Amino acid sequence: MKMSKQFPLNALRVFEAAARLGSFTKAGEELGMTQTAVSYQIKLIEENVGEPLFLRRPRQVALTEVGQRLAPKVTEAFEMLQDAVSSARGDVDAALLIHSTATFASQWLARNIGSFQLAHPNIAVRLTASNNIVDISKEAADVAIRSGRGAWPGLDSHRLMRVEFTPMLSPALAETIGGVHEPRDLLKLRIIGPDDPWWLLWFRAAGVPDPDLAGRPVSRLGAQSFEARAAMAGQGVAILTPEFYVDDVALGRLYQPFDLRCRDGQDYWLAHLHARRNVPKIRAFRDWILAELNPDAA
Asked: Which residue ranges does the record assign to the HTH lysR-type domain (predicted)?
């Protein structure tokens, strides 16, 4: 029997899009097909498999258990086919789309990505920075650098950096109160982001269970890197990840008054779809960044 009769590739492509997008309508828009045509192709693949692959509900569809088992394997198969075609025609200039948290992008990735580009000159890099968690199965991103605990369904996660935090401020600001000698001295100064849960965790670990931060003006700046800039400018004390600011400490722009560092269990991770783990550009970036930040895991 011919392969085309055993495996209806067109129907599999439609199934992959509908499963990834969670919608027959969106799958049709992506593939340039009517919703009726999408439904027909889904019916063909269900007849071929012998099981329903979607639960039809008003205005939405959901994968059945069989569909959930099939979808990632079909996605991986099409990725492999795309990679094979790209290799055959010498298409090595495909862009690597990276989504990263703003702080990691500005404090580490932007400073180091040049070495990746030197090692892989045929891979163009496009970087988007945002603290929103994007769904890389649906958004334009090949890999994501996230802060969290590393457990995201459907994704492979690789720890990049253990996140620790501690108060940091400019030496000039510390001098305005005669120096910072004990943790309570920090409360004499403006606290940047007093509603950040890191503050309460750190003060409690430092033996100050009642820092009374609730009444202070809230001034969250949206990203740790912005809060660090405010601290360098003497606008207050920020709670930061010191690994990002080694150069600023060396240049006297920031000062870490206490050795105590705390953790909340959330670290930086590289995440990508399990089905795309062997795509060459993703594999190249994964190997590079793990070797840079976590050599034991590379």
From this structure: 7-64
